[in-house]
Amino acid sequence: MANLLPIDFSQISTYITLAVILMLSVVLCMLAYRLMNVVPAKWLCDYDEEPDESLFGTRYIFKQSGIYTSALFAIFNLGIFAFFGYSYYTIFFLLISITMLLIAMSDFKYTIIPDQFTIALAVLCVALAITDLFTQQIFIKEWWSIPLGAVCGGGSLMLINLFSIVILKKNGMGFGDVKLMLALGACLGFPMVFSGLLIAVFIAFLYIIFLLIKKIFSKNEVSSYFPFGPFLCIGSLCSLFLVNVINYGLDLYFGLFSLSY
């Protein structure tokens, strides 16, 4: 197992880099808000729909919620640097995180994940997976892990949707989520794609609990739409960062079976 790149926090240059990443994160977050205002309106609606008037005006305003988003985005990027240091991993994850932010903003507000964002994320995920395969092998050990991870990721959500259609007589998962998990699965590889899905489901469950509590105590109406795309992104990132911990836990688990024989 390749180790993550160490960071020497005794160097002044490290703190300068942290400050630069902090400021860059805020700028990128503000840029994401600006970008959501200029992307074609057609991107933010289904294929068979025409954009309504709300999509031609100002879509996002950088206000209090934007400040919170910037803070979380900055903390996340500082964590990236703490994990991977001065490496191409940091660059890849910085680009991936800003793309995921655009996906989350779109899914939360417009209940859609534009294909353009998903394609950009897929290119970055595949590039990271291939780079990792031929260098550190932190996430990807074998070449077949990339396509198999993508198929398992997208296929799992398609099976969930099929189950929902048969049992509940309605769609349980948007096809945008399926395409998103195809992209993320390529980066996670097999079998880590399943840990990403499990973490996503767990965090989504916590969010549902929060919504239920908010509905009880809030006078305002709580939206019934539940965006799963942001949680797929968060779960996948957590799985990538915790890859060593997850693999260690799996080794301990399967080690119990070997001791029983």
UniProtKB/TrEMBL annotation:
InterPro entries tied to this protein: Peptidase_A24A_bac, Prepilin_IV_endopep_pep, Prepilin_peptidase/N-MTase
Segments passing through the bilayer: 12-33, 65-82, 88-105, 117-140, 146-168, 180-213, 225-250
Domain called Prepilin type IV endopeptidase peptidase: residue spans: 95-209
Alphabetical keyword list: Membrane, Transmembrane, Transmembrane helix
Family note: Belongs to the peptidase A24 family.
Classification via PANTHER family: PREPILIN LEADER PEPTIDASE_N-METHYLTRANSFERASE-RELATED, TYPE 4 PREPILIN-LIKE PROTEINS LEADER PEPTIDE-PROCESSING ENZYME
Protein name in the entry: Prepilin peptidase
Taxonomic lineage: Bacteria, Bacillati, Bacillota, Clostridia, Eubacteriales
